[in-house]
Design a protein that fits this description.
Chain A: This is ABC transporter permease. The complex is a heterotrimer of chains A (about 325), B (about 650) and C (about 325). Chain A has 14 helices and no strands. Chain A is an all-alpha fold and about 325 residues long. In chain A, about 60% of the residues are buried. Helices cover about 40% and strands about 20% of the residues of chain B. The longest helix of chain B is centred in the C-terminal third of the chain and has 18 residues. The chains are: A mainly alpha (about 325), B alpha/beta (about 650), C mainly alpha (about 325).
Chain lengths: ~325, ~650, ~325
Amino acid sequence: MTTTPPPHTGAADRDSSVVEQRADLDPATTASAAAPSLATKDAHTGQRNTVLTRFWAQKQAKVGVIITAAVVLLAFLGPLFVPWATGYTTTEFVARPFQPDGIAGSDNLGRDVFTRFIGGGLTLLLYALLATLIGLILGVLFGMTAAYTGGWLDSLIMRSNDVLLAIPQLVFALLAITVLGPQGWVLVTVIGITHAPRIARVARSATLGVINEDYIRAAEMYAMPRLRLLTREIMPNITGPMAVEAGLRLTYSIGAIASLSFLGLGMQPPTADWGLMINENRIALSIQPWGVLLPVAAIALLTIGTNLIADSIARASATSNVGEQ
Amino acid sequence: MSSFDTTSTGSIATVSPSARRSSAWHARAQEGGNVLEIDDLHITATASGADVISDVELDLKPSEILALVGESGSGKTTVGLAVLGHFRTGLTHACGTVWLYPSDADEPAEMTALPDATLRQLRGARVSYIPQDPALSLNPGMRVGEQISEVLDIHGFGSSAEERAERVRSVLREVGLPDDEAYQRRWPHQLSGGQQQRIGIAMAFAMYPDVLVLDEPTTGLDVATQAQVLDTIREMTVRNKVAGLYITHDLAVVAEIADRIAVMLRGRIVEQGGCADVLERPQHDYTKTLLAAVPDLAGRNRIGDFERADVPADEKAAAEARATAAEENRKTHLLTTDATHASPAAEAATASGPETGTSGTAGPETGTASPETGTSGTGGATAASEVSERQPTAPATDAVLQVRGLGLSYGPKTILESIDLDLRAGECTLLLGESGSGKTTLARSIAGLNDGYTGDVIYRGETIARSTRQRSIGQRTDIQYIFQSPFSSLNPRRTIGESLAVPLEMAGGLSAAQRREQVKDALDAVRLGRQFHDRRPGDLSGGERQRAAIARALVNMPSVLICDEITSALDVSVQASIISLLRTLQDERGLAMLFVTHNIALARHIASRVAVLNAGRIVDDGPVDAVLENPQHTYTQELLANVPSL
Amino acid sequence: MIARLILQRLAISIVILFAVSLIIFFATVLLPGDPARAILGQQATPERIAAINEQMNLNEPPLTRYFLWLGGLFVGDLGTSVATGQPVSQLLSDRVGSSVVLMVAAALISVPAGVILGIVSALRRGKAVDNTVTGLSLVLAALPEFVVGIALVAFFSTTVFTILPAVTMRPPGTQVWDFPSQLILPIAVLVLVVTPYIARMMRATMLEVLDSGYVEMARLKGVPERRVIFRHALPHAIGPVAQVIAIQLAWMAGGVVVVEFLFRFPGLGQALIDAVDYRDVQVVQAVTMIVALIYVIVNLLADIVGILTNPKLRTGGDA
């Protein structure tokens, strides 16, 4: 114990829902404030009180789902309307630079801004989803393993985490891009890998909260195979915090990949991409604002939407265990 | 017993800070009236508007202790906090009054309607609170002396800092703690649980309050410390003429300390009266059930029998036959179905009254209208008043399971040392130990959940592996362990049926349909009923969950059952029904049982042998009567002397 | 006891830095690609490649190169920029100051702001103030730095108002802090991005503490509300929040890259972007190492705060 101090306890980085999750793991702290006998009775009144119903009961969850859905639809369906609905392809030169032609004018090279806008969200979204997925798989795997096995493997995994955390995500990505160049798979992999230690921390602490429960001891006692124990007994009980984590990491993936494109080190010209569009058109912010404001608004709405969803899941799953206490 | 410094204080008139001769309190005290009156109190849940507390009426005189008794969820703490004008988040004061007659003012105060500033002046000074868990309510970031002097500073005790410092020292002496500077500079985590509670008591008494609310102040303390703390409280209330509202679930403690008793059930007071009256001649049915459920050391009060219906003779016979059958066929898997089908009577009993939905916190479990098959062999003896002598159904000579020289230490710290223990078929051994004695460690070592021990666990003549994973399937299914908390031992995301099928799946050899049938049979056997198969733990009360956990241990037809404090998280009436169930099951199936507990009063209700564990060693071991009546070790003697009883 | 704990943390920090240096070095060295060719691009002739290999010790085995590089770090020799031919230390020296000014200023504003907003929000739980703070911080926390930055530029420098400069000008011989108005927007972006996290964490920690048994007990003792908050509740929230603040400040080291790029602010971040563009490995290594150093130092400080505010750690477990 004394030899393996937890240097940066509990708090995850950039993690707005740390405490909701902590409450989730320790129902006693939240239950103490609740009125006696209220929570336990819900189950008997007929109306189901699940994480999902509690999620939907929140206004911010509905707002989050609606705006996320709107931006996602735009990103996925937009490319289908190019070029027949807008009349141009995303890379076609249609006018002189910064002309007020068409719906939103032309960009720095004279391409149609609106066409590029509706065609420019798909890659960002796909990359972000993939990066989140990689991060989740690695993080949950390492986090659960660390918590379940304990001992030296736990120490090794968590110390390695601390090392990786010492390099900010964006800086780490730049390091990778310097060596490997700004290619799609590099962006996805490096963002995914840099999410992993952050997710692993949450997965580990969620697993630790579950692992000391007697039902895990009972499964051990009946000699349940370890893999089955992890997937059947532990996994279902950490879905709450992991869903929150997935939402948060998706938000940050979108932000990180868009930021890299904005820096000119993500998606490369002449691709139509929201982050890159902002980079290309920001000199002309005052004369042709649409080229910047449309993609900025789309990215802002998307990240706000996913963050609202993540926060709503956190609230919904934090109260769930109170009822089960 | 009591460790008071009796020279430190005189009468209230000479030491009280207010030293007033006339006040609302004095007027009341002189005419023998109440200093606290609660009238028609209603408290509702803010969210739903439903009453949590209804029609509560209580009053208190100086030097009097009124016990407010109720099981979990009855609302007793809510009433206690209302006395201080405090309502927890989620609760709203609906109507009713709480009148306090303070000794520092001429007018009484209505606690629920005071402005915050006035309320603060009364709290901690005229009415104070001793919380349940001192570990949670002492500020971990403040030295204990400062936490006491803070009360005095805020309320402006005396006229100088010197006087306040002296009061801190004197109140520390009064609660039997050292009063020196070094002690005052300690942090809460440097004190034991008993010492922390004494700090809590000192804080409450520091200002010579008129009314004291004590919220289960001895829960979690071991028996000897509890006795000392109770003495302290009793002495200080009398000496300082404090009126005490003592909130508790423990009727045995009530008998020791209270003058009057009020019994709460679902937010209402169902019975109120003098201590002896209520305990000896209870009027309300709930009080009767509650009293019948309290285990007593003498074993006169056969807990779990209170709900016993008239048992038809043929049902008894059926159960008896089943018990015999069980003994004979125990090792075959076919047995479960056989045994249960052979006893339609038992199924009928289950169908007639399974535990209903929410009863867990509300009252006695009504579903256990089970025949008391436990004493079927000696049916006549049950009727007699002396039932303490429990006859094992199958008096075996050979121990099914033996523990030899078991020891365990973590680093330099020895948890268990050379433990020898024999468990015989049809015999229940009560393993008694207080917190920290190592009892759970021992139970888990036997069950194979702790593999770090030295020594041997011998099952049917064969030394078995230390970890369950290394044990054979047969050994694993034969030795079963039930966990303390039913709130933790069942996976909340899986149905009862899924959880209960795990032992069968891991033992192998059965089809899914067979497993399902066997699980349902087990649910019947614990008087839960088959309909619980598809429910989740969240829908069950504590008692129901513990029954499900017992069913999981029984589903594989074990021969050794280890019960680790399985009733300590449950209310006393639920405990009684679980004990009754265990007795029945043990006798039906001839189980060798180890019942681990901290409550020695349960001994005669469940066990035929008692082993006393103290600081990792077994200090007394023998038949129940021998240990309880003629304890050998001073630890057991002290323990027995301190057990509160009705 | 305290000294031992702090020394232990210090040792861990050094180990972490050492491990980071390994990652940085071997990530840039062992991955495929010929650095010399990458640097020279079209002008690569065998002689020039050989010269560069010689200059960068590329002919030595990787382990030797690592120790040469690590040894250089200790004496302030960060290598030579292949893009400009200047020593890296000289290239970065006047940029470090600019970035530090930016970050320190942002920290000095956002830490107290976040802490105060969090406390106020927790104390007014469920009231309008709380809902506003929680809602706003949730929205702001979602936004990438450049989105906040562009919004501010659009609002204050171009389309709506034109009162603040959108880019940083620094004539030779001057320092960034000679032009305070140029600092306002970059600092504002960092503050807006970091404050919400601190506020949210402060609020959540504070709520947890306010629900604790000892805070309820303090109220039942008649302790005035102000004292309940400042004496009983707040000290217990400091430790956990210090951790989050540390992580946020370290995060700022990454965010500052985007902000500097956006405002053309002549700091470390700008240098890093340029270096990545030119594949100037030496500079990238050096900047990454500096950023990691900042992270480790800030975290170490937070750990020390955590130790000092926890009486259990301070006094040890025994009586």
